[in-house]
Amino acid sequence: MRNNATTEPAWLRWALITLALGFLALNLLLPLLAVFGEALRKGITAYVAGIREPDAIAALRLTLTVAAIAVPLNIIIGLAASWAIAKFDFRWKSVLITLIDLPFSVSPVVAGLIYVLLFGLQGWFGPWLRAHDVQVIFAVPGLVLATVFVTFPFVARELIPLMEEQGRDEEEAALSLGASGLSTFWHVTLPNVRWGLMYGVLLCNARAMGEFGAVSVVSGHIRGKTNTLPLHIEILYNEYNFVAAFAVASILAGLALVTLVAKSLLEWRFAGQLAGRGH
Amino acid sequence: MTVTATDVVKSFGNFAALNGVSLDARPGEFLALLGPSGSGKTTLLRILAGLDFPDSGRIEIGGEDMSNAAARDRRVGFVFQHYALFRHMTVADNIGFGLTVRPRATRPPRREIARRVSELLDLVQLSHIGGRYPSQLSGGQRQRVALARALAVEPRILLLDEPFGALDAKVRKDLRRWLRSVHDRMGLTSVFVTHDQEEALDLADRVVVMDHGRIEQVDTPEALWDRPASAFVCDFLGGANRIACHVSGGSVDIGGVRLPNSAPACGDGPATAFVRPHEFALAEPGTAGVPVTLRRILRTGARPALETATADGSVLEVIADAADHLAAGAALTLVPLAVRAYPAA
Amino acid sequence: MNRRNGLLQRRASIIPGFGLTFGITLFALCVLVLVPLSAVFVKTAGMGWQAYADVALSSRALKAYKLSFGASAIAASINAVFGLMTAWVLVRYDFAGKRVISALVDLPFALPTAVAGIALTALYAPNGWLGRWLVPHGIEVAFHPLGIVVALTFVGLPFVVRTVEPVLADLGADVEEAAASLGASRFQTFRRVIFPAIAPALATGFALAFARAVGEYGSVIFIAGNMPYKSEIAPLLIIIQLEQFNYAGATAIAATMLVASFLLLLAINLLQGWQRRRMAS
After folding, report:
1. Please, are residues A107 and C257 in contact by the beta-carbon 8 Å criterion?
2. Are residues A104 and A27 part of one domain?
3. Across-strand partners of B334?
4. Which of B53, B82, B87 is the best substitution to test chain C (most C C-beta atoms within 10 A)?
5. What are phi and psi for residue B103, nearest 5 degrees?
6. Is there a domain that residue A270 lies in?
7. C239: which chain A residues are within 8 Å (Cβ-Cβ)?
8. Contact status of A2 with chain B (Cβ, < 8 Å)
9. Do both A30 and A67 map to the same domain?
10. What is the DSSP string of B160-176?
11. How far is A144 from chain B (nearest CA, A)?
């Protein structure tokens, strides 16, 4: 309960609220509105034309494909990592956690570059890949790799603190009642962390679909073939085709809004079943 | 310094925390606010400190109207239930805080502050740990730091919210006596909140018993014990057996035994009698009194305690002089020797 | 069964699956993160000092680092101030639409950086909603270094807000009441009691925002103007080297930036340790 002893005079309260909201409006809301404003600048017909252009649809398809591979991979890695870290004691655990977080502090451009160094024509495995006619860089596998790298920590980061918080009692109880390891995981652990998992997946997916820097390096920027939506936006923008660029951007902005709404709903409904609200 | 509260009313939403409470603490007095949780005792203490403000009513400290004064202007020492020590400051910095935040004009020089802090560290017997952080202290030590911090500003009155609530039993008892001796030495007016009747009766000059936002009784521990003003007070002080009885013409009838009522006037009709365990005599079955069956004999103190049950199953506790001739299962009659009867609820 | 060699369990557990899950984690970490990252250092180590310095320590690169770190520091500082204010307002005050505002704070996490980049550029371009007011007053944002700060401020805000918010919410009201009853003014209470308690979280949030800003690419390149020596950020240099098929040059700059990232990561870990110690009651 707040009271006179622990709150500020009304004028200061309103001044702070006004300043903070003003900053958020200028810094966050205005850019968001600008996306839709610019997209509709030449009317709805131009907008629809920008979205329905075949290259845009190909980019959308590619973005969905990449996310559809990268996100499940992330779920598997995140579940495995959080199970190992939260349910067992082992040496160097904190080092492992730091390493899982590492991709967050690597520039996306570097994230793309490292795969070029490995799988590019002049890369470590380049000659071998070429001999076997496998293309990684400038193709879908490269996009997936770069996306998995930049989203690597998302699911694990949400699940590790949550599983640590929940402890091991329930799993031990299930096992002592004769459940197998797999059914313990399926019937005990997973239901306990499902909202946290959803939360992590949501953020992971938003990043996977929106990633720009890393995929920009590994994509060949071939229209209709290796361009994801964000890369397609860049091309349209650089061709001064602003309306089309913003029209495509509005799809991603819409996705961002859906993500925010879903995320808020999760936080609101299942606050107790989410942990370590870190990002 | 006198502290006076007059007709204080406070509600939080629909919950009436205080329903017109009036109270005065005399200079140098150690006053206890005793009551179950939700009785309004902590709210009253916080209103005295200026941490909450009453919806109506008046607060005076030393004869000065303080009803609308901010906490920082009241010069009231407040000891929080969970101590509220500043975690990032050393013990010494915690204690000196109140002096260092004074306006420049009245702020003592640095050396003077250091001297006051070391004096207070001596007072609370923590001179050797002034450089430690709160996280490195035991519960009892934190409690003493909180007290020293409150005393550093030379408060006019000292308010303590459940000062021993978070401590274990042994530490609690030691600190209790020590706190009383500090109070006596400083000559302060102190008000403390507790839900532990033993603590209140043991420490306070006078005890204010509260329930549902009202004051039930204000009295010295002796008077409170001898003449509880209401069934609630009698019950809350604890240890008394409840027996249904009938009052007529000022005397109480329990199972055919007629006794004068030791409680304040109670109208004629059915009533609840409170009889303390040592206020029974044992008699053969068939005598006037309360017929019971002996269930167990407990030897926890100097005299044996008997757990007995009436025919309807309610348990009565009796302290007997001797129990060697008794065995569990025996039929007995309890003859009350003194009784306090209150109108049946 | 306390085996002593390397990364093994400290304590036997009846829960199965350690080998499998630990194996998957380590495998994924090595294949996807550690080996690729090590390629940068192996390649850099192989190129010799002179070749490294020619690119990574060229005057153009040094300018770019300076710009990246400088703009990131400014943006993170702005975010520290407004992020703290936002967290404060969200935790302490009630006002209409609070839930919506709270959700909006996470927009930079959800909005693709390229979208943010073109949106900010459109806003601040000379004919944009904001640019048309600012440019006549001599405040040029788009295609100038100031634009970089604007973009980096956009991406960094939620790091500060979301790090400070829980700490601020956990701060007990009783310490503030204690300060008040000891005679502290509201400002003194903030400066002496509240701020020190949230300082580690604020520093962590600053470091996170800073680290993110240093590596940021998508939101910046549209608004920066990308003029060599003037408005060219370090990640862009890598792209430029790659476009010229100068893989060695790109790698050299990447190695330099990675070292900086690792140092930042170390700093963040130390700050978080500080925060945990301070929050210990």
Report:
1. yes
2. no
3. B282, B290
4. B87
5. -60, 150
6. yes
7. 109, 216-217
8. no
9. no
10. EESTTTTS-HHHHHHHH
11. 47
- Neighbour tally for B48: CB within 10 Å: 26
* B12 contacts on A by Cβ (under 8 Å): 1
Helices (H) and strands (E) in chain C, counts: 15, 0
The C-alpha atoms of residue C217 and residue A238 are separated, in whole angstroms, by 16
Torsion from C-alpha of A218, C29, A199, A256, nearest 10 degrees: -10
The answer to whether A108 contacts chain C (CB < 8 Å) is yes
User: Please, which pLDDT band fits residue C280 given cuts at 50, 70 and 90?
Assistant: low
CB C173, CB C164: distance < 8 Å:
no
Supply the pLDDT for residue C274.
83
β-strand B241-248 against B269-275: which pairing, if any? antiparallel
CATH number for the domain spanning A82: value is: 1.10.3720.10
B82 token code pair: 């969970």
> Does the pLDDT of residue C9 top 80, yes or no?
no
Give B51's contacts in chain A (Cβ within 8 Å): 3, 5
What does the alpha-carbon distance between residue A217 and residue A150 come to, in Å, rounded to a whole number?
13
Instruction: Answer yes or no: do A227 and A114 share one domain.
Output: yes
Say how far apart CA C175 and CA B200 lie, in whole Å: 26
- What sign for the dihedral angle of Cα B89, B90, B96, B100? negative
Structure tokens at A51: 């979205």
Give the C-alpha separation, B218 to B58, whole Å: 19
Distance CA B178, CA B143 (A): 12
For residues A206 and A61, give the distance between their C-alpha atoms in angstroms, rounded to a whole number: 15
Q: Are strands B30-34 and B206-211 parallel, antiparallel or unpaired?
A: parallel
Domain locations in chain C as residue ranges: 1-45, 49-280
Tell me whether strands B331-336 and B280-283 are parallel, antiparallel or unpaired.
antiparallel
Q: Are residues A19 and A112 in the same domain?
A: no
Residue matched to tokens 């807000």:
C161
B50 close to B31: Cβ distance less than 8 angstroms:
no
Considering the domain boundaries, does residue A1 fall inside one?
Answer: no
Question: What total number of domains does chain A contain?
Answer: 2
User: How many residues does this entry show for chain B?
Assistant: 345
pTM over 0.90: no
Judge whether B342 and B272 are in contact, CB under 8 Å: yes
CB-nearest to B101 from C172, C174, C182 is C182
| Least reliable range by pLDDT among B11-20, C11-20, C162-171 | C11-20
Half-sphere exposure of C126 (CA within 13 A, CB side): 4
The identity of residue C166, as a single letter, is: P
Q: In sequence order, what are the residues at sequence separation of 6 or more whose Cβ sits closer than 8 angstroms to the Cβ of residue B291?
A: B255, B285, B310, B311, B331, B332, B333
Two structure tokens written together for C8: 């093994």
Q: Which of A107, A117, A147, A162 lies closest to A272 in space, CA to CA? A: A162
What is the percent of chain B with per-residue pLDDT over 90, rounded to a whole number? Answer: 54
Tell whether A13 and A48 lie within a shared domain: no
Structure tokens at C108: 């930079």
Residue B9 · residue B175 · CB < 8 Å: no
Task: Note down the domain range covering A179.
Answer: 43-275
Residue A169 maps to a domain: yes
Architecture of domain C49-280: Orthogonal Bundle (1.10)
Is residue A110 located within the same domain as residue A30? no
pLDDT tens digits along A167-220: 889 999 999 898 998 999 999 999 999 999 999 999 999 999 999 999 999 997
How many angstroms away from the CA of A9 is the closest CA of chain B?
12
What separation in angstroms does the CA of C217 have from each of A63, B113, B286, C117, C234? 19, 54, 98, 9, 9
pLDDT higher than threshold 50 for residue A34: yes
Pairwise CA distance, residues A267 & A260, whole Å: 10
Q: Is residue A112 part of a domain?
A: yes
Same-domain status, A214 and A91: yes
Q: Are residues A24 and A158 in the same domain?
A: no
CB-based contact C109 A203, cutoff 8 Å: yes
- Write down the residue that tokens 């399926």 correspond to: A186
